[in-house]
Every structure is written in structure tokens, then in C-alpha cells.
TrEMBL record:
Residues 369-616 form the Mic1 domain. It comes from the Eukaryota. GO terms for cellular component: late endosome membrane; lysosomal membrane; Mon1-Ccz1 complex. It holds the Pfam family RMC1_N. The lineage of its organism: Eukaryota, Metazoa, Chordata, Craniata, Vertebrata. This is Mic1 domain-containing protein. One of its GO terms (biological process) is regulation of autophagy. InterPro entries: RMC1, RMC1_C, RMC1_N. It comes from Denticeps clupeoides (denticle herring). The gene is RMC1.
Length: 643
């Protein structure tokens, strides 16, 4: 079943038609390109990559067997090595002639082992006697030597992501000398030694480039050493040893990945996971160096998941000889080179849910993956229902892990905002706007995809539903994240739906649910179902010092005109309040004595403020003055004060 495969090949691999006619195939890691070279008269070349919209095809004069071929970044300049002493170049820049030019290595009697582009116009030759760093001048069709370094070299590995070159030195090859390249400069980094396995004398081991890989994991550069132990009865299985290679400072051994088996292996890094492929068992192991086993020593890792094979893949037949009805050919996994295809590997997260029963560990694993949001929300939904639903402490652990990431993002966003508002300065220029990754699961995500759906389920105890909602709110409060009102509304609606009014009253009385205007309005709407909700709402609005207008509107809508007036006086707003609003509300009560009291209050206010009890035209109270005269007579109107 597909659900068992958590490692898969991405669709649309790079494919070369008529692969049988290709003499040589070269892989350029920097540009993620595969070069297919056909000889015969002129040399035909096709360069393709997974990210290329179209392939690059061209012909070169046949000057001998191609040993290495690579484009500079952006396919601007082509470099081809045909001899041990020189590298040929060809411009692919617009407005420049496509004429080849050549550069011999400067060191006498040296043999060029290979070359690496470090920029679109900068290249380093690696020879058996050192390295030579050049700037390519395409308009002059020549190269300028920027720097060179003499050192005995066995083999080399280059990391295009970080522009770091590793050279293997010494007889055993286990002393590695790194060099860093940036903006036309070459820097020598501290050398370090790879610890080789102990073997019985007089045998000696040497370090092979097949056992070394370089990769960026969680933004840091690591050298990965595939360490094979001697085959004895009690010998441990192979392991992958990681050496952290910082830009400054010494390289240190930091992690050991236990493979618990022997044989041939291959390494990949996908989504910050180290994937180790075991050829004989046709399975792959996944390691996450940020996850540590509780029963293991620090930085010693077991596979995160049980070993699984890569998801089977079939290759559709193409070309003139392929029949339309011919079925795709299953790909022989772990032997991709036979097909001359280039794939990206991908980690499928959904199948991992059933392979990591520990929800805390599962969440730690998922939160560090690139496309994790919907899978995490799926975990949150699944852990709340069914026969195997998790206990409240487990749910709390998951919520805390999510909200820790959420809080970190909010803090980073706030720091960035403060830095930008403070104006340009040296410190603010260092601030970069935080990137919101899929690991940031906010309250809206949880409400929409998990909690609102969960609260309506009929097959779950209402006590558990309320406990889960309150646990999520507890977690938000623990990380000092302001709880959005719609979560409180969800709690209240759930309590009301199950007639748990006593619990609602307690939650409000002890401020478990934080005060807000939307929440107060929701309580008002519940008055017909739960009459005390009206007073609870008013109490909440009073606690919100900015909600005076809303309180007045609420009281007037309930025809509590005197109560509204008393509240206005209690907060000192009676000199500015609209007379017409109160008189309108008083008339709607059909209580003439109440109307008289309210009318008299505003007459007295007018007299106190202006020396005249009458209403100004701008107050639009003429209708109410006429009504007052009709009911009580004109003589009942207050007279202006006499001096």
C-alpha cells in the first residue's frame, strides 16, 4: 500500500531519450544538471535539470574525450576538461562569440583532478598538488589567477550551497582541508581529521571519497562520514558520523547515526533529514539530528522511523520504438544510474503518522518539516476522536509544542516591527522580516481545521470537548499569547448547547474567559436562553473601560433608560450624552412618568450648562418638546433662570 512508503521519487524525472547512444553522462551538483555527451564527428551535448524549463543543446568541436563538463551559474559560461593539464571554456553569454578558449594549470607536472564553479565567472581548479582560483574574463576570452595554494590532494568534494571545498590530504586521506569561497576571495579554514575505524595491525585503512558527503542540515554545514567497521562476530554495524564545519572555528564531531547493519549504503539529505539507503535490503533509514533518544547518549541517534523501501516507480517508455499500449517499466530502485534519469527524493509525511506512536516525538518531527501544516492539523484532529484518542496530558503536550513555535514567530515579528518603527540604525539593518513557515499553526488554523469541527461531534463526550477547548486556551495563556475571541465564543456556545450554565457562570465569574466586547455581545444574545447572561454581559462591559458606549446602547435596547442614565453619570459622561437618544428610548417605553423624568433631567442639564433649559436646534429635540407639551402642558416646561 502507498501508505507504507514515506520516501518517494518526485514525478517528472530528468530523462534522456535515446540514452543508448550517449557516450558519457555527467552530473553537475551546483546547477543540478545532467549532461549527456555524444561523440562522433562533432560532440553533441544536452544539458537538462529538474528545474530547467527546457534543455540546453549544443555542439562542440571534437577535441578528445570529455572528462568533465559544467556550466557556470546561470548557464553563462561552459567549462570542459579534456586533458589532465587544461580546461576549455566557451561563452554562452549574449552578444559574445561562442569561441572556445583554454587555460592550463599553473603548477608544473600537476594533474587536474577536476574543477568547480564558485560564481558565474569564478572557478577553482583542483590538482593533485593544490588548488588554483581564477576569475574568468569572458569578453577577453582569458582567465586571471586570483589565488593558489600548494597542498597534496588525493580527492576533493565541493558544497555548492555554501561554496566550501574539501581536500583530502595525507597518505590515509583522512585529514581534510576546507577552503571557503566568497566574492572573489578564497579563505583557508582549519583542517580536521576523520577518525578511521581501528583495524588489526599491520592492516591500514584509508579514507575514500565514496564514504564522505557534504550537506547543509538545519542551515549548518556538515561533513558526513560513512564509517564501516571490520567484519567480526561482535563488530557493530556501520554508522554515519557527522562533523560540524562552521565558518569560523574548528570542525567538531557532533552526531553519530546508528545504522545497525552492514553493507553498501548511499546518503541523501532531504528536508533536513539524513536518508541512508541500504542496497542489499532495498530499504532506507531516516535520521533527524534534532531528535534524540531518551535512552541514548547525547548526539547518538537511532532511525526516527522503521526502515522502509522507496515507493515503487514505473518509467513510461518513450521514443519511436515505444508502442502506445506498452506498459511502464518498473524502476529497479537503488540502481537509478542504469536508466540515466535524475530524480529528486521527497519525504511523504502522512505515512509517518502511524509509524511514530509517541505524539510528542511525532510533533517534534513534523514541526521541522517543510510542508507540515496540513499533516499537523490532521494529527490534532485524529488524536481527539476514535477508540485510540489520546489522553488530555498528551493533547496538552501537543498544544504546548505548537504554541511554542507560534509564540517564537510572534516574538520575532514583534521584534522586527519595533526595529523598523525605531527608524534606520545599525541594529535595525540586521533585522530580517521573520519567515512564516508552515510550522506556525495559529489560532485561526486550529479553530478552522480542528476545534470548530471537533466541538460539533456527537460521538465525543461534551466534558472531553470542553476540556480540550480549555486546554488549548490554557496553553495559549501559558505562552502569553492573546486568545482570540472566537475561541471563547466556541467555549460559550458549547457550554450553552449542553445546558452547562453553571460552568459558564463560573468561567466568567473567575475570569477564565477573558473580557472582550464581542464576548459581551454574545452573552447578551443568550439572555433569552439564560437570563443571568444579561447582567454578566454588563459586568464584563463595565470592566472594559473602553466599552461605555456599548453599555449605554445595551441598556437602552432593554428599555432600562434610567439605568443607562445612572451609568452615564457614574462615568462622568452625562454632560456630553445625546438628549435625543435618551428621549427616543423613553418614549418607546410608553411610560409617561419615565419620559417626564428624563426630559426634566436634560432641561436641568441645559440650564446648568447654558443658563437656559431649552434645547438647541442642533439637538433635534423639537418633536419631544411638542410631545411633552401635549402630555403635561406648556406650563410644565422649565423657565429660564432670572438674574
Amino acid at each position: 500500500m502507498d501508505e507504507e512508503y514515506y520516501i518517494a521519487l518526485c514525478e517528472d524525472p530528468v530523462q534522456f531519450e535515446n540514452a543508448s547512444s550517449v557516450n558519457n553522462v555527467f552530473f553537475d551538483e551546483a546547477n543540478k544538471q545532467v549532461f549527456a555527451v555524444r561523440s562522433g564527428g562533432a560532440t553533441g551535448v544536452v544539458a537538462k535539470g529538474p528545474d530547467d524549463k527546457s534543455s540546453v543543446a549544443f555542439r562542440m568541436e571534437d577535441k578528445g574525450e570529455v572528462k568533465c563538463i559544467k556550466f557556470s551559474l546561470g548557464n553563462k559560461i561552459l567549462a570542459v576538461q579534456r586533458t589532465p593539464k587544461s580546461v576549455d571554456f566557451k561563452n554562452f553569454l549574449p552578444d559574445l562569440p561562442h569561441i572556445e578558449f583554454s587555460q592550463e594549470c599553473k603548477t608544473k607536472n600537476a594533474v587536474i583532478l577536476g574543477f568547480c564553479w564558485t560564481n558565474w565567472n569564478e572557478i577553482v581548479f583542483i590538482t593533485d598538488q593544490g588548488i588554483e582560483f581564477y576569475q574568468v574574463l569572458p569578453d577577453k576570452r582569458s582567465l586571471k589567477l586570483l589565488k593558489n595554494q600548494s597542498i597534496n590532494v588525493n580527492w576533493y568534494i565541493y558544497s555548492p550551497e555554501t561554496a566550501v571545498l574539501l581536500l583530502s590530504t595525507t597518505v590515509q586521506g583522512n585529514v581534510l582541508q576546507p577552503f571557503a569561497f566568497k566574492n572573489g576571495t578564497m579563505s583557508k579554514m582549519p583542517k580536521f581529521e576523520i577518525e578511521l575505524p581501528v583495524v588489526p595491525k599491520p592492516a591500514k585503512l584509508s579514507l575514500s571519497e565514496r564514504d564522505i558527503a557534504v550537506a547543509t542540515i538545519y542551515g549548518q554545514l556538515y561533513v558526513m562520514y560513512l564509517k564501516h567497521h571490520t567484519r567480526t562476530i561482535n563488530s557493530p554495524g556501520a554508522e554515519v558520523v557527522l562533523y560540524h564545519l562552521p565558518r569560523e572555528g574548528a570542525c567538531k564531531k557532533t552526531n553519530t547515526l546508528k545504522l545497525n547493519t552492514t553493507g553498501k549504503f548511499a546518503l541523501n539529505v532531504v528536508d533536513n533529514l539524513v536518508v541512508v539507503h541500504h542496497q542489499s535490503s532495498l530499504t532506507s533509514f531516516i535520521f533527524d539530528i534534532k531528535l534524540r533518544e531518551s535512552d541514548c547518549a547525547v548526539n547518538v541517534h537511532q532511525p526516527v522511523l522503521p526502515a522502509r523501501s522507496i515507493q515503487p516507480y514505473s518509467i513510461p517508455l518513450t521514443g519511436p520504438t515505444a508502442a502506445p499500449s506498452q506498459a511502464p517499466v518498473p524502476c529497479e530502485l537503488f540502481n537509478f544510474a542504469l536508466y540515466r534519469y535524475l530524480w529528486y527524493l521527497q519525504v511523504r509525511l502522512q505515512p509517518t503518522l502511524n509509524l511514530l506512536p509517541d505524539k510528542g516525538k511525532l510533533m517534534d518531527f513534523l514541526l521541522r518539516r517543510r510542508d507540515c501544516k496540513m499533516v499537523i492539523l490532521s494529527v490534532c484532529s485524529q488524536m481527539l476522536v476514535g477508540d485510540e484518542k489520546d489522553s488530555l496530558p498528551v493533547v496538552a503536550t501537543v498544544f504546548d509544542k505548537l504554541n511554542q513555535v507560534y509564540k517564537d514567530y510572534l516574538d520575532a515579528e514583534q521584534s522586527y516591527t519595533v526595529a523598523m518603527e525605531s527608524g534606520p540604525s545599525r541594529s535595525s539593518s540586521l533585522h530580517k522580516r521573520p519567515v512564516r513557515t508552515q510550522a506556525v499553526i495559529d489560532q485561526s488554523d486550529m479553530y478552522t481545521h480542528v476545534l470548530s469541527v471537533f466541538s460539533e461531534r456527537k460521538d465525543v463526550s461534551h466534558k472531553f470537548i470542553i476540556a480540550v477547548l480549555m486546554e488549548y486556551i490554557r496553553s495559549l495563556n501559558q505562552f502569553q499569547i492573546t486568545v482570540q475571541h472566537y475561541l471563547y465564543e466556541l467555549v460559550i456556545k458549547t457550554l450553552v448547547h449542553h445546558n452547562l450554565f453553571y460552568m459558564l457562570h463560573q468561567f466568567l465569574q473567575y475570569h477564565v474567559l477573558s473580557d472582550s466586547k464581542p464576548l459581551a455581545c454574545l452573552l447578551l444574545s443568550l439572555e433569552s436562553t439564560y437570563p443571568p447572561a444579561h447582567q454578566l454581559s454588563l459586568d464584563m462591559l463595565k470592566r472594559l473601560s473602553t466599552a461605555n458606549d456599548e453599555i449605554v446602547e445595551v441598556l437602552l435596547s432593554k428599555q432600562q433608560v434610567l439605568g443607562a442614565l445612572r451609568f452615564v453619570r457614574s462615568v462622568g459622561g452625562h454632560d456630553n450624552v445625546s438628549a435625543r437618544k435618551f428621549l427616543d428610548a423613553a418614549r418607546q417605553t410608553n411610560n409617561s412618568m419615565l419620559f417626564y423624568t428624563i426630559f426634566r433631567f436634560f432641561e436641568q442639564r441645559n440650564l446648568r450648562l447654558r443658563g437656559n433649559p431649552g434645547f438647541n436646534p442642533g439637538e433635534h429635540c423639537e418633536e419631544h418638546v411638542a410631545f411633552f407639551k401635549q402630555i403635561f402642558g406648556e406650563q410644565a416646561l422649565m423657565k429660564p433662570a432670572t438674574v
